[in-house]
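ugh ok so i messed up the first submission bc i forgot one of the chains. this is the corrected input, ALL of the components this time, i swear. 224 residues overall. if the numbers dont match what u have on ur side tell me asap before i send this to the collaborators (the ones from the other lab, u know who)
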Amino acid sequence: DAMVIQNPRYQVTQFGKPVTLSCSQTLNHNVMYWYQQKSSQAPKLLFHYYDKDFNNEADTPDNFQSRRPNTSFCFLDIRSPGLGDAAMYLCATSRAPPIDQPQHFGDGTRLSIL
Amino acid sequence: ILNVEQSPQSLHVQEGDSTNFTCSFPSSNFYALHWYRWETAKSPEALFVMTLNGDEKKKGRISATLNTKEGYSYLYIKGSQPEDSATYLCAPRRNNDMRFGAGTRLTVKP
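and heres the new structure output, hopefully the right one now
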């Protein structure tokens, strides 16, 4: 089945040690999103790609970067993880235009910081 | 800022009960309203995308209504089953800004 795949499912890293989370999709969707969700809170959009165009949310910390080398893959890089970055990270895709199109989510990566 | 309120935060019902919960959002510049179901250890799954005032959508025992003039949407579940236990998230879109609510966590007891 076509889907959105996130790896790994669980990631543990050390305080300050760079970490990369990955997302791939077989849906051929133009738009890819990264969300951060902390316990019992609303998923918070960090940034999204519309094709190759990168759209950063105004309140996303500089510590968070993203790369989209091709349509299928998108990466979330956290340059110097702090304890406050422990969260569930969700990747999602949608068809273009994004308006009125449902988002298709991966299972998420739960990030822990030691 | 697009403030989204979902109520209640959590809900416990018995199998067979019907239930409903609310998503509230600013009515100005409304574009669309998404509902998602997020079961534990799974990915969020799209339920509905609604755009027009007065829209009603249905999927099995789940239905939703939309009032864009007053800024709210209701999600209804008829005859709840244990498999309906999940967090239900709404996400209104206003222009290019889409925000998720914190969700309503539903637990259906057998």
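quick check: The CA atoms of residues 41 and 86 of chain B lie 10 Å apart. that seems consistent at least. Chain B has no helices and eleven strands.
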